[in-house]
Every structure is written in C-alpha cells, then in structure tokens.
Amino acid sequence: MKALNPLFFLLFLLLCGCATNSVEKRKEERHGVYSELTPELRAAVDQGQIKVGMPMDAVYIAWGKPSQVVTRESEKGTNVIWLYHGTQMEEHRYWTYLGYGYRHGYCSSPYLVTEYYPRSYVRAEVVFGNGVVKEWRTLPSPVY
Questions:
Q1: The domain containing residue 89 runs over which residues?
Q2: Is the confidence at residue 108, as pLDDT, over 80?
C-alpha cells in the first residue's frame, strides 16, 4: 500500500484548519457585534447557521463575505441581497484522434477524452431589509 505524500497531508490539515477557524476569526474581528447578539443568535452563528431577523454582521460572522452584493428596490422598499457562490466541476467529453507515426506511414485512432472545468453557481442568497435578514435560501448545485 502506498503511503500518503507528507506535503499533501500537511496541505489537507492546513485547509481543514482554515475552514474550522474562519468563524472564530470573524467572531474576533466583530467581537462587539457578536457579544451583543442574543444567546439564540450566538448559538446559530457558532453553528454557521443564519436566521430571519439576524443582523448583517451576524450573517457575515456565520457565513463570511458574500461573493456578490445586489441591491433591489421595490414599492415595499430597498433590499440588499448577498449571494454566495459555489463551484462544481463540470465534465466535458469529446472524441479526438491520437496520431502516431510508424516506419511505413502515419496512423491515427479515435479516443474519448474527458476533461473537467470549474463552473460557478449561486449556492445561497440572503435578503436584507433595514439591515436584518428578511428571508434566505440555499440552492442545490446544478446538474450538468
């Protein structure tokens, strides 16, 4: 059995550490806001969850910086929408020819190539009115 590459293992630990400590870092960054939250909202933020009525800063602590910010105005007022993007690898298949030369000429044969490209999509959106969450939703990753 082949041993894991030590560099790969170190990178894995580093990435896992960053993912789990990011909420803690944002809590330190916005300590004043976090300490003023109700116990219920603090518990939600600690678990990376958001709730209707939660202030923008609490959403930032729980989920981080949004990928995109959109402003929408209607007769009911102005809303700010935070969009969080995700990335999914999209498979592309195509036929091509593998050419090779030999002593008496050139030959080619078809073969199938599979390549993967990252594709971004909106994975969640949070709608704010007057600085607090009015509604939010998560969206499934698309099927390509």
A1: 6-138
A2: no
Confirm if 22 and 64 have CB atoms less than 8 A apart: yes
Residue corresponding to tokens 């981080």: 64
Residue 128, Cβ neighbours under 10 Å: how many? Answer: 21
The model's pTM: 0.70
Asked if residue 91 is part of any domain, the answer here is yes
pLDDT band at residue 3 under the 50/70/90 scheme: low
Neighbours of 139 (CB within 10 A): 13
CA-wise closest residue to 80 among 58, 53, 56: 56
Is 143 within the bounds of a domain? no
Rounded to whole angstroms, the Cα distance separating 118 from 87 reads 6
**Around 127, how many Cα atoms within 13 Å sit in the side-chain half-sphere?**
10
Q: To the nearest whole percent, how much of the chain has pLDDT over 70?
A: 78
Structure-derived torsion over alpha carbons of residues 55, 49, 18, 119, reported in degrees to the nearest 10: -100
- State the pLDDT confidence band at 6, using cuts at 50, 70 and 90: low
Total of domains in the chain: 1
* Closest to 136 measured CA to CA, from 82, 61, 62: 82
Strand-pair partners of 73: 78
